[in-house]
C-alpha cells in the first residue's frame, strides 16, 4: 500500500478499505474530521495530513467498513445548520424533516405551546426554537416527548448545548400529555414490507421503533387521530411527516376520523407528498 499523507491518498485508501460504504458517507466522515466544508474538501485534495489525522481517519473508516453510520461514528449530525448529537438508539436527523420544520415555522406565533412528538435527538425542537428566535417569535412554551430513554437522554443533552428551554416527557404518542397549540412530529412510518428494499446500514444502526409503522406504515397515525382532539387547544394545528406512498391512506383516515379539521398535504422538494397539516376548526 502506498503511503497515506494527503487527503487524496486517504480517500483512495478509504474506498478500498470500505468498498461497501457509500462514497458520500466516506467523504462526509473525512471532511467533518478535517473541519472542511464540502467545497473545501473537493478543492483541497493535496492537503498534507498529520500522522494523528491519518490515524483517526483509519479508525473511522474501519468502523464505516463494519456498517456503522458516519453520524454515529462522529457522535453528531447536522440539521438545518445546527450540530445535533446522536448516538446508537436515536434516529439520525433527515433532510426531509427540515422542510417540515420550515412549514411549521410559517404558522408559529409568539407564546405558542408546542410539542415535538417522538423527539428523538431533539433536532426539530432545537431548529424550531432557534429559527423562531431569528424571526422574533418568542415566549414559546416548548415540550418534547419520546418513548425511549436513549432518545430522552440525547435530546436533553442537545437542549442544554443549544440553550433551549424545553419540558421533556416520556410518553407513548399523546397519552398523559397536556394540550398544545402546535404538535409537530416525524413519526415511524416505514411499512414492514419495505425492510427488504431498505439500506442495510439504516436497518443495522437505527432504532426500529423510530422507523417502522406496522404492516401498512400508518399505525402511528391511526392512534394519533383518536387522541389528538384531547391534546390540542381551540384552533390548534398538527404537522406530520409520512411516507410518500401513504398519502391516499392518510387522506381517507383523516376525512373519516377528523372531519372537523382542515387537512392540507404538501410535497417535499423532490415533488413527493411527504407532509400533512391539520387545523382544528373549533
TrEMBL record:
Pfam family name, one: MTS
InterPro entries per record: DNA_methylase_N6_adenine_CS (IPR002052), HemK-like (IPR004556), N5-glutamine_MTase (IPR050320), PrmC_N (IPR040758), RF_methyltr_PrmC (IPR019874), SAM-dependent_MTases_sf (IPR029063), Small_mtfrase_dom (IPR007848)
Domain spans labelled Methyltransferase small: 110-196
Superkingdom field: Bacteria
Gene Ontology MF term list: nucleic acid binding; peptide chain release factor N(5)-glutamine methyltransferase activity
Keyword annotations: Methyltransferase, S-adenosyl-L-methionine, Transferase
Domain called Release factor glutamine methyltransferase N-terminal: residue spans: 22-75
Gene Ontology BP term (one): methylation
Family annotation (PANTHER family): HEMK METHYLTRANSFERASE, MTRF1L RELEASE FACTOR GLUTAMINE METHYLTRANSFERASE
UniProt-recorded name of the protein: peptide chain release factor N(5)-glutamine methyltransferase
Origin species: Lactobacillus helsingborgensis
Organism placement in taxonomy: Bacteria, Bacillati, Bacillota, Bacilli, Lactobacillales
Protein encoded by which gene: prmC
Amino acid at each position: 500500500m502506498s503511503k497515506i499523507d494527503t487527503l487524496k491518498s486517504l480517500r483512495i485508501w478509504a474506498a478500498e478499505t470500505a468498498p461497501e460504504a457509500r462514497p458520500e458517507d466516506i467523504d462526509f466522515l473525512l471532511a467533518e474530521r478535517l473541519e472542511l466544508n464540502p467545497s473545501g474538501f473537493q478543492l483541497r485534495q493535496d492537503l498534507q495530513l498529520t500522522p494523528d489525522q491519518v490515524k483517526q481517519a483509519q479508525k473511522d473508516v474501519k468502523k464505516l467498513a463494519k456498517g456503522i453510520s458516519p453520524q454515529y461514528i462522529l457522535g453528531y449530525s447536522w440539521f438545518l445548520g445546527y450540530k445535533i448529537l446522536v448516538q446508537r438508539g436515536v434516529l439520525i436527523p433527515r433532510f426531509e424533516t427540515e422542510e417540515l420544520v420550515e412549514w411549521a415555522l410559517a404558522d408559529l406565533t409568539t407564546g405558542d405551546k408546542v410539542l415535538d412528538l417522538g423527539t428523538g435527538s431533539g433536532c426539530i425542537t432545537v431548529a424550531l426554537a432557534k429559527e423562531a428566535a431569528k424571526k422574533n417569535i418568542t415566549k414559546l412554551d416548548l415540550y418534547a416527548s419520546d418513548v425511549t430513554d436513549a432518545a430522552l437522554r440525547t435530546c436533553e443533552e442537545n437542549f442544554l448545548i443549544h440553550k433551549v428551554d424545553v419540558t421533556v416527557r416520556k410518553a407513548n404518542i399523546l397519552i398523559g400529555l397536556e394540550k398544545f397549540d402546535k404538535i409537530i412530529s416525524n413519526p415511524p412510518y416505514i411499512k414492514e414490507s419495505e425492510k427488504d428494499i431498505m439500506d442495510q446500514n439504516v436497518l443495522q444502526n437505527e432504532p426500529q421503533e423510530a422507523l417502522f409503522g406496522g404492516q401498512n406504515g400508518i399505525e402511528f397515525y391511526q392512534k394519533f387521530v383518536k387522541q389528538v382532539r384531547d391534546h390540542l387547544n381551540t384552533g390548534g394545528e398538527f404537522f406530520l411527516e409520512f411516507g410518500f406512498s401513504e398519502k391516499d391512506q392518510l387522506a381517507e383516515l383523516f376525512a373519516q376520523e377528523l372531519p372537523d379539521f382542515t387537512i392540507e398535504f404538501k410535497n417535499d422538494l423532490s415533488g413527493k407528498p411527504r407532509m400533512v397539516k391539520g387545523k382544528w376548526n373549533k
